[in-house]
């Protein structure tokens, strides 16, 4: 029963987040109770762990609300929802933030300083240059990373709680915590044991700013201005072969010229040699199908290494390695052995130590002097590969790295991964194509090692020979009982710390795992794989993976890969892919573009339900424009939430019971229409179409408030009678259903209104079904629609006459088809009451019309 003392005089949205957020926490509303759940009753969510670095942005609010809508819906459907929250602590963004925030940089050669105090606290943006940052030991640096990520996580959690995420906060995890280290390292060890993880010295995409390797999934092409240089290579007969290159500084690293095997212009040259200009190195002319006849002169130089195609040519044609670019992006001091002439070595010496840009200028000058620059450089704009978080073009250097096989060179694994993707239900379905295109386009195995500091250590050591040189082909891999372990500070099995770095001793692996190598295990991290078998068996495979579309190639693919390699099954039954948030100019919001909106002010200004409504209005996979200066959808959502509160207060004030008989036809018609709305909203949610569920519920709600509630309120206010009881029962029944329909979206307003008449949370109430209403409604909602049309016609007549809606009507006529007349007569008394109509008549006609509305004079 309604306790009127609970209903405020003026319902408001302000403050509901703190009131009900605290109540949910105290009551354990969203707590996952494994003891009460069977596998069939569980809906488990593999939640994306946001990077705990800096601040959340409005895109997080957008996509995490989509997840929460489904969590709340499934909970109301009777499921035990496993909804954890993870924090992605490690990775380059965290390290960069720590460097800027504290004014430090990591130098692994320095000893640990137990009393170290950073020079700044919160100096973001004031100490970006490495020269201005104080070098500290790796251990000191990691301690600062851990300190700052914990602070960021607390801010993130506070924002998510304000948003109303129905997360079980007792099920949270951190990707750098001991449990995550154990899981990540154990999975890696299993990969090694099965031959899926391996180490190799190979050409590697390298970011010279951050001094780390970069995986294929972390690349992005950016259009860059450059120049094509037409250069002559010398034939033995005195002729020249003209090539065009945008990287003349790599001529000292040239190992061959290549043309397409069908190119008749160069077929006579295949199997012969030419000599490089300036540096005088004899290189072969070879054929390969990747050469493009219509690019430049149709023949290109292969250098070690200018781009990824060079790597393919180098590998498939078994060419020598003459790499000249160092880890710092500068030309190395030692010239390739193939440069043997005095003039060639002198020319190379002019390049040593220069950046690639300066070296390019120097080589162009040398080519001009030698007469081998055959034309003025031609300006071009072309795509150049960058690390997605980097500011300088990537180089390709030879490094020793760890890889995990991903199907790039294994057709059977590739087909298994594609098959797994087809076993998953994608929402929307077209996103599956992006996954398949990525798998089919893989060109190399997954490079998982990173030359960074804050992350999961690779659990490997290397023995040293008698000369103190590492035997990399004999790695010592940690055993399970040692995990978690950091080889840079713990001795290898069978050795003691005194043997570190000594001949006959060992060295530890200093590289850490790529952040995706940990995030690819989020199902395992959250569900206690190999740590909590009971929980693992309850929730895996998960029900849903929600995520953004831009990380299908990274997070989604890598999770499918790890599940396939370790478990031989798909990690979830469904995946829900959110679109991007774009600014008013339809540009994707990102920190690098400076157009990101942080959500805290938005939530405080408009209320969380308003922001949740905005997010819920967008379908999965669809980009949503957001204008912080005029957030129209947010304002609409706020209006809706306020209307829900006011309508609930109004309805609950009527004297009567919700379970009284509903006998009046228009009341039964309204409930019949609501039955249809429930069915449509349920189908939409079952199909992961939350926007459609909101749309049908909201459309009905406004009709309910503007038409039905207005139509029957006079009767509901009247003296006790079967007709009055019918109106009140219909109103309260409908309100009960409407609050539950809106509960996933308007989490706070519906809870507030629900608690005025219930002792438990609306979010633990059952989702409405047609069975709840079928016995009380007519076969359809035609009468409600006709009554709404009649009411609208009467209102319009008063508006056209510029009269108040309270103006009495002396007489009015409704024209309607014969079949509709009988229905309308049943609602005549309500129409007369709400329209203040003295005489209402009905006339049969072909089309519906309200006419001959005679208004009383103002004085009457």
TrEMBL record:
Spell out the reaction equation it catalyses. tRNA(Val) + L-valine + ATP = L-valyl-tRNA(Val) + AMP + diphosphate
What main location does UniProt list? cytoplasm
EC annotation? Answer: 6.1.1.9
Any idea which GO molecular function terms this record carries?
ligase activity
Specify the Aminoacyl-tRNA synthetase class Ia domain's residue ranges: 23-104, 133-626
Write out the domain note. Answer: ValRS has two distinct active sites: one for aminoacylation and one for editing. The misactivated threonine is translocated from the active site to the editing site.
* Name of the protein: Valine--tRNA ligase
Q: Which organism is it from?
A: Agromyces neolithicus
Q: What is the lineage of its organism?
A: Bacteria, Bacillati, Actinomycetota, Actinomycetes, Micrococcales
